[in-house]
Amino acid sequence: MAQDFYQLLGVSRGVSQEELKRAYRKLARELHPDANPNNAEAEEKFKLVSRAYEVLSDEETRARYDQFGEAGISGGGRGGGGGDPFGGAGGFGSIFDAFFGGDSPFGGSTRQQSGQQRGPDLETQIKIDFVDAIFGCHTSVSIRSAVSCEDCGGSGATAGTKATTCADCGGSGQVRRMRQSILGQMVTTTPCGRCRGMGEVIASPCNKCRGEGRVTKDQTHEIEIPAGIAAGQTMRVTSRGGVGPRGGAAGDLYVHIDVAPHAMYQREENDLVTNVQVSIAQAALGVDLVLATLDGDETLTVTPGVQHGHEYVLKGRGVPFLNQGGRNRGRTRGDLRARIEVVVPKKLSSKERDLLQQLAKERGEAVATSDSSLKSKIKSAFS
């Protein structure tokens, strides 16, 4: 069973970011694996509260979580969905960066050790067709990003040369210092200033990339849009961000989705809704209509005496579920709801008026006569 992120952190839903930060900081100190060696339960809870803070400390992911729960941050948004939520650019490292300058308060560092560093995450937005959002599609995304330098093969060094071990940090990429704090003696580490945390220095940098091992170019990536994605959701495409310096792994690409409107259908969660117009006679007597659904034409039988606003439901003709957990378990798609709209004619011929007056007389209903209607118009003109 999914745990409530607010309960994990011991805070209310209206908590401020400052109070949220204090609550997480207190729990992180108590549960950190370095403070609880060989305690699997504490380590697991530490991961859970860190995951909770990662989501709630970001206004965008917090808003999605408040509205949809974990389903709102799964399948692609920042802080959610697939893979290790504590890996990459986020997780423990980014949290301790905010609190302790990248250093664990229990010694050591949450930063990567020397060598290749992960590249930056990138963001872009695309607009897709309504039908493509319902059934999924393949599309391309163009973005300017850092790619490996072809001249040096990503090493950053001129052909025929190579990097050497940094003398200042001995190849670790970090400089360690001991300091006293209110928690006692603490070890802090900072990136080596000489090699910029790489652990190696380049005596003869590549002319094209100037030792970075990467250059900036326009890139096009083919991505798969899952069936059922909605406007406002974000997809995470792993390893399609910028590459890191000197052969470092690529970050991720976050694709924000916008969906074009449809001429006939609107989306309400996983249901498709459309208005079906019928005349007074059709509403009273019933009629078989052809309804153009996204799966093809369907016969819609309007029963005699149908009322304005009545909905006919076509099961399983709606939007596919991205997440089939909870109340959606076992369901693959939502429903199509055809909402009846009884249209009253604004103008009538003399024959149509006579017929309606005969109907009203037969039913004992009072209606305006043609003469009284004319007198009313003349009176309005002179009033």
Give an overview in words.
With 383 residues, the protein is of the alpha+beta class. Helix content is 25%, strand content 26%. It is built from nine helices and 15 strands. A hairpin with a 2-residue loop joins strand 10 and strand 11. The longest helix is centred in the first third of the chain and has 17 residues. About 10% of the residues have low confidence.
Write the layout of secondary structure elements.
Layout: H1 5-9, H2 17-31, H3 40-56, H4 59-68, H5 92-100, E1 122-128, H6 130-135, E2 137-148, E3 164-165, E4 174-181, E5 184-191, E6 200-201, E7 214-225, E8 234-237, E9 253-259, E10 266-268, E11 271-279, H7 280-285, E12 287-293, E13 296-302, E14 311-314, E15 336-343, H8 350-363, H9 370-382
Parallel strand pairs: 1-9, 11-15
Antiparallel strand pairs: 2-7, 3-6, 4-5, 8-9, 10-11, 12-13, 14-15
What is the gist of this entry?
With 383 residues, the chain is an alpha+beta fold. The chain has helices spanning 5-9, 17-31, 40-56, 59-68, 92-100, 130-135, 280-285, 350-363, 370-382; strands at residues 122-128, 137-148, 164-165, 174-181, 184-191, 200-201, 214-225, 234-237, 253-259, 266-268, 271-279, 287-293, 296-302, 311-314, 336-343.
- Provide the CATH top-level class of the largest domain: Mainly Beta
What is the CATH homologous superfamily assignment of the largest domain?
Urease metallochaperone UreE, N-terminal domain
Low-confidence stretches: 75-114
Structural class: alpha+beta
Within the CATH hierarchy, at the fold level, what is the topology of the largest domain? HSP40/DNAj peptide-binding domain
The tally of strands reads 15
What portion of residues belong to β-strands?
25-35%
| Structural domains: how many | 3
Mean pLDDT: 81
> Biggest β-sheet: count, sense, barrel?
4 strands, mixed
- The end-to-end distance, rounded to whole angstroms, is 71 Å
Radius of gyration: 32 Å
The portion of residues assigned to helices is 10-25%
Strand order across the largest sheet: 10-11-15-14
CATH architecture of the largest domain: Sandwich
Task: Output the helix-strand order.
Answer: HHHHHEHEEEEEEEEEEHEEEEHH
The helix tally amounts to 9
From the spread of the alpha carbons, the general shape counts as elongated
